[in-house]
What does this fold into?
Amino acid sequence: MVTAYAPLNVFDVLRGDRRSRPSADHTIADGLRAILADGIYDILGPQRPDPSIVVRAATLRQPPRTVDLSQSPLGRIRGVLVNQLLRLLCVGADVVDPFDDAVSAWRFDVGTNELVVAFDRLDADDRARLNAEVRAHFSSLEGALGTIRAHWMPRSAVRATQRLADGAVELRDVVDLVVGAPSRDVAATALLDVTTAPLGHGDERTIRYHALVHTLRTSTMPLRTSALSTATNEFWTRDVDFALLARSVDDVLAVVDDLWRAR
Amino acid sequence: MTTLIHRRLGATTINELIDASPSPSVLTDDHRHSLSGRFRAVSIESHRRLDAWSVERAGRVAESFRWSPVTARRLLGNGALIRRHDDRTSITDAVADEIADQLLRATSGHARTGSLASWLASAHPTHVAIVTAESVNWATQLHDVAIEIDAPWRISSADAFVDVAGARTSLRARRDIEVRRGDDRVILRIRGGAPGKSAGPGLRTDLVIDTLADPAGLAPARYIGLWPDAGLCLAVDGTMEDLRAGARDLVRTAVAQRRARLAQAA
It folds into this structure.
């Protein structure tokens, strides 16, 4: 694990030294899927949950039956707004007013949902606090990312869905930022999770989960997976290897077990 | 018997599916007349449009169309890749050029009301940036698929459209990449999300419409549907059985739509 603090440029670490990239592994996904299917059968047996058990990055970040203050409505809204700003930075848009632009982009992107309704119900004090927080987080984000060059092929809010064990379990994921083009020869894709909370154990599980779902989706192992906290400017990055993916398989199976017992 | 091939989306899968595609069938004028007759038999007061999505929804009336980042991304993303002649232009820049071209159409008065160009022209710059981000995601995944294809390919410049004479019916098939395999063609179509239970009939619908749009009635050797979000691909062959099944589904959907409209009117 590499831990760094800004002002080190995040992209320098994500891309690393191009000459020392490992060979692309196109064979590992089938093995991981088989291990997951066996593990799920051990937990569920021949039963078929209806509806299926859905695992998300948020499920791994926060263990079931625990309370995390960063997951309060205000914390979640702040996270969503900072992610919208990341999307704007990815395409080189001029951000004139971080708060107003983020809110405008968010409303346009999602329309109406539970969180938008919660945002509309905020009183003037909460809204002013959120405005100040979003500006501060945006400043950290902009400083840490620097210029995002178009030829790195940045993609924001990249979604993935994986059905396992005949649909008994569904893995869903959204990676905040993916850079690098897939290659037949070398691992070249890097994943970045941006959070507005300080980094913790949950974020380790999250970045492993991003790597696992990306590997299952594309059948190719990514180069590295990372997390950036705009609250503390901490930046964690891990090179992806079988050990990391195997730990994520264990994380997922533990969550499936918890969710199944809770039903 | 109809075909439905199911594979994990991997580096070699698409080439294997293209290489192993069978010889395609040909629809004759008799087939066309027969299908037109069936559509004419399902009378309707207004014009109807049928595509794979309406077949997958079993003719249920869809919400009225409106532009959004998700509905705009395919048009802009595909246009950007057609525009991008070489690897020196980044996908983000190509998408930005495509959007600039749309805006130019709107400002020069060449855009119809309700078109993508007029919608973009009236959008806030922040909203245009979100549309750009979605379109870049779409174009990048299309690019990632295309560069793995060994055979000659091109991004489709337009979907396949067929107007059924005398039946007030137009048919549309989505196509994103056309691959040439000698005299035959293989079509790739990309979708977001994960395939549902009716994905196979949807692909057969696209297959038959693309065949009807071909002047010689030559079917694509294979129609491949890709779901990159789920890492899956499904394929149907251009056989007569699959074409017949696709045509039957279209007529059934027309009947279901007519019943739904009659029920609404009553």
